[in-house]
Amino acid sequence: MFENYKVYETTLAGRPLRLETGKMAGLANAAVFANYGETSVLCTVTASAKPREGVDFFPLSVDYEEKMYSVGRFPGSFQRREGKAADKAILASRCIDRPIRPLFPKDMRNDCSVVATVMSVDPDCSPEITAAIGVSCAIAISDIPWDGPISSVDVGLVDGEIIINPTLEQREKTELKLTVSSTADLVAMIEAGGNEIPEDQMFDCIMAGHEANKEVVKFINSIVAEIGKPKFEFESNDPDPAILDEIEAFCVKDVEAALDTDDKNVRDERLLPIYDAVHEKYDELFPEQEGKIDEIMYLIQKHVVRRWLKDEKKRVDGRGIDEIRPLNAQVDLLPRVHGSGMFTRGQTQVLSIATLAPLSDAQKLDGLDEEKEKRYIHHYNFPSYSVGETKPSRGPGRREIGHGALAERALVPVIPSVDDFPYAIRVVSEVLSSNGSTSQGSICGSTLALMAAGVPIKAPVAGISCGLITGDEGVYGDFMTMVDIQGLEDFYGDMDFKVAGTHKGITAIQMDLKVHGLTPEIIKEAFEKTRKARLYILDEIMLGCIPEVRPELSKYAPKMLSTKIDPEKIGDVIGKQGKVIQKICAECNCKVDVNDEGQVFVSALDLDDAQRAIFMVETIANDPEVGAIYKGVVTRLMSFGAFVEIAPGKEGLVHISRLDVKRTEKVEDVVTVGDEVIVKVLEIDDQGRVNLSRRDALIEVEGAVPENDISEEAAPRRNNNFRRGGRR
Asked: Could you tell me how far CA 602 lies from the centroid of its own chain?
């Protein structure tokens, strides 16, 4: 039945890689069932027969779909089925999209859909890497025009050793999470998060990933040679070269004058009448090209900007090639939040706000990997007003999720441990104005907000981007790089190489390309330029604004305390149906979280409330200390004394003889149910019953003078009809 069924096998990082074709998804342009270890991903690619009308871009969609059956679990949603893609799935889609997109013809307008469906997951074999390799093979053997293939690998760093595609055990120890995608000879994509990795070590790791990719590309090329389909012809959507030349000659001087400013608003205002003049002159002359006029204007601006940069070393805003735009850093702009910081770079401005919360507010994750919770969260918002547009807000898209993840990854290595800082932390970056590098601005703003909030980060982090312009010979010919690219340089350039880090090293990288890939020389140059710029931003701007982490938290931030109890006492602290812990929370106006290891976390706006809750927990979990003074509540009255609860579920008896500093005839004469009293622990008997004294506490704490003596005959009597101490 499956006459065209083929299986191709090799090894990658010591594990079997198997690519199957000809059995599944036979109506797609191509399909590959990719298997790495026991990870299985179905990768399909489909293209429309005709181009889409009215678009000036290549309409490619890439979807990485996680199926919970792949790890033997139900989805966590109410409907128990997969719904909206999780952030991790979106990030995986982006990591597949970025290296494959530049390899498609820029003038093709046929819709192209790439879908990678994760069907089985081996924890030691990344489904994201499996998907990237499977997608590359599927496009390569299809009839869709494409200048691939590519390969992707993960790179780890364990005890100084570079590891290709680290296993689950190795991922738990690695100092680096790096994904490298490559063509046969160029590095096509870099995505990294690292624990302050020096530039030279990061470069070595990238090159190690690149070498591993070369072998997989060779493997895919052998498959293409055997079963690859001829690529279909398509109608080019490029404007007519003669018309492009005529319009460029007509308006290029005006375009140059319009672009020659550091103000985006001024630039846009200058360009509007030029667009109007071009349309007025050429819409009727070239009616068949009317829809291409705006695309031609885009190309003219692109030619101008690239010529300035490449040939004249001139930037649109007049800066030097390695000069950073004017910078400004501020903190404490919002009085009631836990911490705020605003970072401004030219016309790019980001306001970041830090919020602290109990650990129970950490984000719960429902994904395919081992990570089930996220304590540090970064969210990035990009409203339309930031670029002077009027689009309604529709929630975060893939771009916002990607930029938020990059900033989060940049800060995670410096976030203090739970033991040092028992808080969940959320930072929201609001882009107020955008003219390039907002993601890096959000990294700087987040650092400022965390420091202002009093979060004891290990080191401040800054982010900066590097751009690239290549000539006619591409990356192998003359090229030039420039630091701190603004919007036009990103839009018309060939690269956005984003690097974040501390004084010590790199914490995050994200590389976006419009060319097929980078040579090692370009990567080295980008590292050196971003390192110098990063250190300048840290030393001269950010630390000049806030030299060190605030020693105290905001008065509006919850105060967090923690203690460790015997895990066998967790039930006592929680109580039947949670009554004990609920009572602690109500009485102390706090929130209490207990984990399975016996770690107790208490959060409250008032430090005294948190300390009182910790005291209660420790009193419940441990026997009261003989001789210690407690504040308790009278719970029951008996003829022989009063029961006082010194902590929820933990009570003792105050004998009538020890209720006051004078002789007491009736218990009711001194206390009533609900009274708050101070008591001293006299003894704990062999049955765990607690004997208390209000008399001794008054003498010791308030300096009361006793008016009578307590004889031996008046010593506390034990009545076995009543249970004292422990939980009720």
From this structure: 26
Residue type, 217: V
This prediction has a pTM of 0.86
Domain presence at residue 719: no
CA 320 to chain centre: 33
Q: Please tell me the total count of domains within the chain.
A: 5
Q: What is the DSSP letter of 578?
A: G
Q: What gap in Å lies between CA 272 and CA 253, rounded to an integer? A: 15
**Edge-to-edge, what's the strand order for the sheet holding 474-483?**
161-164, 151-158, 176-182, 187-197, 506-513, 495-501, 462-471, 474-483
**Cα-to-chain-centroid distance, residue 27:** 38
At residue 68, φ and ψ (nearest 5 deg) are: -65, -25
390 shares a domain with 298: no
Statement to judge: residues 172 and 285 lie in one domain: no
| Cβ atoms of residues 178 and 190 within 8 Å | yes
User: Is residue 360 included in any domain, yes or no?
Assistant: yes
Across 491-510, b (16+ Cβ under 10 Å) vs e yields ebbbbbbbbbbbeebbbbbb
State which of 496, 516, 545 marks the end of a domain.
545
* Amino acid in position 488: L
**At residue 531, what are phi and psi to the nearest 5 degrees?**
-65, -50
**Residue 179: which domain range?**
6-227
pLDDT at site 572: 84
At 163-211, the pLDDT tens digits run 999 999 999 999 999 999 999 999 999 999 999 999 999 999 999 999 9
Residues 6+ positions from 702 with CB-CB distance below 8 Å = none
- CA gap 343, 371 in Å, rounded: 31
Chain position carrying tokens 């550091």 = 262
Are residues 515 and 476 in contact, defined by beta-carbon separation less than 8 angstroms? no
CATH number of the domain enclosing 700: 2.40.50.140
Q: Can you give the three-state secondary structure of 483-512, one letter per residue?
A: ECCCHHHHHHCCEEEEEEECCCCEEEEEEE
Strand partners, 374: 363
CA distance 211 to 186: 10
| pLDDT tens-digit readout, 379-412 | 999 999 998 888 888 888 899 999 999 999 999 9
Sign (positive/negative) of CA torsion 474, 479, 484, 489? negative
